[in-house]
C-alpha cells in the first residue's frame, strides 16, 4: 500500500537543539516538499526537491536544512537558528512535469521550549 | 504578498444546505488550482482540482468553479454533511512550477446537524 509517512507525530525539544523530522514515501514520485503550518495560517513552503541530490529553498528556508540522498527520503532539520520553530510540519510528494495533486503525510507537531 | 487568499476564515452552514468557499489569486501565471481538506493534526487530503482551460469541474457533491477574468475560484459542497466540517485550503501552481503549490490561509467549515 503506497503512501507517505512522517515520524514522529509529536516532538519536543529544548531551545538551542537541532532536531530532524523524517519523511519517507513509497509512491515512487520524484518531487518532495516540506511545508510549515502555523495556527490559523496556510501552508508555507520551506524546501523542495525534484530529484535526488538536489533541493531548492522555498519561501521560508532560513533556519532549516534538508538532504535528498534517496528518492524515498527527504528529512528536514530544524536548526537552532530557526527563530520560531514551534509549528506543524507537513511533508508532501508528487510527480514532476505535469499537473497532479500532491500527497501529504500526516505531519509532525514540533514544540520547542 | 499573498498570492492566494481565502478571505473568510470560517463558515457555518446547516446540514443539507450548500457550502460555498471562496478563493482569490493574484498571479496570472497560475493555471492549475486545487482544493484540499484538512482535519486537525492530520495532513491535507486532496479534494478536487481544475485546470485553467476549464471553468467548472464536478465530483459528486463537490464542484469547483473558476473565473479566470476575476482571478477567483469557489468550491461548492451540496448537500453539506457534518463530516464535511474541516479546514479547506485553496492552492494554485503555474504550469512550469512542477506542482509547487501556493496555498491560501484556509477556511474552517462547520456543518451543523
Can you describe this structure?
The complex is a heterodimer of chains A (113) and B (113). By secondary structure, chain A is mostly beta strands. Chain A has no helices and 11 strands. Helices cover 0% and strands 50% of the residues of chain A. In chain A, strand 5 (43-51) and strand 6 (54-57) form a beta hairpin. Chain A starts with a strand and ends with a strand. With 113 residues, chain B is mainly β. Chain B has strands at 4-5, 10-14, 19-25, 30-38, 45-51, 56-59, 62-67, 72-77, 86-94, 102-103, 107-112. In chain B, strands 2, 4, 5, 9, 10 and 11 form a 6-stranded mixed sheet that branches. Chain B has a 5-stranded antiparallel sheet with strand order 1-3-8-7-6, with no helix packed on it. Chain B is globular, with a radius of gyration of 13 Å. The mean pLDDT of chain B is 94. The chains are: A mainly beta (113), B mainly beta (113). Chain A binds chain B through residues 6, 9, 31, 33, 35, 40-45, 48, 50, 58, 88, 90, 92, 94-97, 99-107, 109, and chain B through 4, 6, 9, 32, 34, 36, 41-46, 49, 51, 89, 93, 95, 98-106.
Primary descriptors:
heterodimer, A: 113 residues, mainly beta, seven-stranded mixed β-sheet, 50% strand, globular, B: 113 residues, six-stranded mixed β-sheet, five-stranded antiparallel β-sheet
Amino acid at each position: 500500500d503506497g503512501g507517505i509517512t512522517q515520524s514522529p507525530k509529536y516532538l519536543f525539544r529544548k531551545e538551542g537543539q537541532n532536531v530532524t523530522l523524517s519523511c519517507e514515501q513509497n509512491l515512487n514520485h520524484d518531487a518532495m516538499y516540506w511545508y510549515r503550518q502555523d495556527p490559523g495560517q496556510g501552508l508555507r513552503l520551506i524546501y523542495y526537491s525534484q530529484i535526488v541530490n538536489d533541493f531548492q529553498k522555498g519561501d521560508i528556508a532560513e533556519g532549516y536544512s534538508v538532504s535528498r540522498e534517496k528518492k524515498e527520503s527527504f528529512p528536514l532539520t530544524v536548526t537552532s537558528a530557526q527563530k520560531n520553530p514551534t509549528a506543524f510540519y507537513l511533508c508532501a510528494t508528487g510527480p514532476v512535469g505535469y499537473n497532479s495533486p500532491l500527497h501529504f503525510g500526516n505531519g509532525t507537531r514540533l514544540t520547542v521550549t | 504578498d499573498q498570492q492566494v487568499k481565502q478571505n473568510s476564515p470560517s463558515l457555518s452552514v446547516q446540514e443539507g444546505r450548500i457550502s460555498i468557499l471562496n478563493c482569490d489569486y493574484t498571479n496570472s501565471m497560475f493555471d492549475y488550482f486545487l482544493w484540499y481538506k484538512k482535519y486537525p493534526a492530520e495532513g491535507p487530503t486532496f479534494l478536487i482540482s481544475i485546470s485553467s482551460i476549464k471553468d467548472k469541474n464536478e465530483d459528486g457533491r463537490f464542484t469547483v468553479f473558476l473565473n479566470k477574468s476575476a482571478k477567483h475560484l469557489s468550491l461548492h459542497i451540496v448537500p453539506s454533511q457534518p463530516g464535511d466540517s474541516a479546514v479547506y485550503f485553496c492552492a494554485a501552481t503555474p504550469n512550469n512550477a512542477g506542482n509547487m503549490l501556493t496555498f491560501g490561509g484556509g477556511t474552517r467549515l462547520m456543518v451543523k446537524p
